[in-house]
Amino acid sequence: MSAFAEQLIAWRRELHQHPELSGNEVATTARLRRWLEQNGLRLPDLPLHTGVVAEVGQGEPLIALRADIDALPIDEQSGVAFSSGNPGVMHACGHDIHASVMLGAAQLLKARESELPGRVRIIFQPAEENFTGAKAVIRAGALQGVSAIFGMHNEPSLPVGVFATRPGAFYANVDRFVIHIKGKGAHAARPQEGKDAIVLATQLVGALQTIASRDVSSLHSVVVSVTRIQGGNTWNVLPETVELEGTVRTHDREVRSKVAQRLRQLAAGFAAAFDAQITIDWRDGPPALVNDPHWTAFTEQVAREAGLKTEPADLHMGGEDFAIYLQQIPGAFISLGSASEYGLHHPAYNPDDALLEGAARYFARLAEKALRQLSQH
Fold this sequence. Notes:
Layout: H1 3-17, H2 26-38, E1 52-57, E2 62-68, H3 95-111, E3 119-125, H4 133-139, E4 148-155, E5 162-165, E6 168-169, E7 173-182, E8 186-187, H5 197-215, E9 222-231, E10 237-238, E11 241-250, H6 253-274, E12 277-284, E13 290-291, H7 293-305, E14 309-312, H8 322-326, E15 331-337, H9 355-375
Parallel strand pairs: 2-3, 2-4, 4-15, 5-14
Antiparallel strand pairs: 1-3, 5-15, 6-13, 7-11, 7-12, 8-10, 9-11
Helix pairs in contact: 1-3, 3-9, 5-6, 7-9
């Protein structure tokens, strides 16, 4: 194993042992700043509470690489020797992997700084998991002057050394809803005296599933999931209120709007049928991540040149706030295989460190080649 690979693994494992939740990545930021400064990277003074931005190279053009750095509120059960030392918090999505990959890419680019035909800005973004980090980075000015941006996510279902992406829509729109149902409480032995909010809620859950199966073309991707039902506190009383919570995932803007409208229509119809009150708290999450076709093809070409096995990625129903960057400037988001038996957000998730060196070298190569292409136009 090379000294470079050993360094990446050491960085990754230290980050893994000290995970921090979205917006609280204070110690993580301090570590990243120290490691970047030790490798001679410039750190522009940007108004970020957590997260850090580094730069290498001189002049124009300017491209950006992005890693996310926050963890999840999960108790780790991976059993690795470097497990989380912060109870109830775990890098269960691999953001420690992403940050280490981009640290490595920054180190490699620094070694070739005099030969770079422009600048590379490396963004270590906080708060991806609650979808606030990309907006904070943009407000801080980190995208100013950037012509293209690239990012990654590890993919546990793919072997190490496999690259996957797709042009156009890749990750989903992510929306959240909370439905408040108010009926009329009653004794469980005399249900006719009340308006049963639990019966209403259970029938509404079933009806919501018809949105994907009957209201939207099967050629479109739609998921409507109710993930929480809360109501009642004892065995012999019909509760007056029930609350439902869930998520909607789509890839098309018009479908996204249609699903939200249909959900409200169904809720209104059930409220009328049961003579109850229903209110909906709809919360827009990040938009669909839409890769630029040119830069997507470019990332795939560089992957082949780097010896990675390339394959087309399936549509992803998860959310990713890298999408917000792609609403501002063109770029591409890719998947790199991490070969974990357990998937993302699982307490036993355990990605293979072997991906680190190849991924870091890939992104350094990608950044330099993107600069060269832009400088020729």
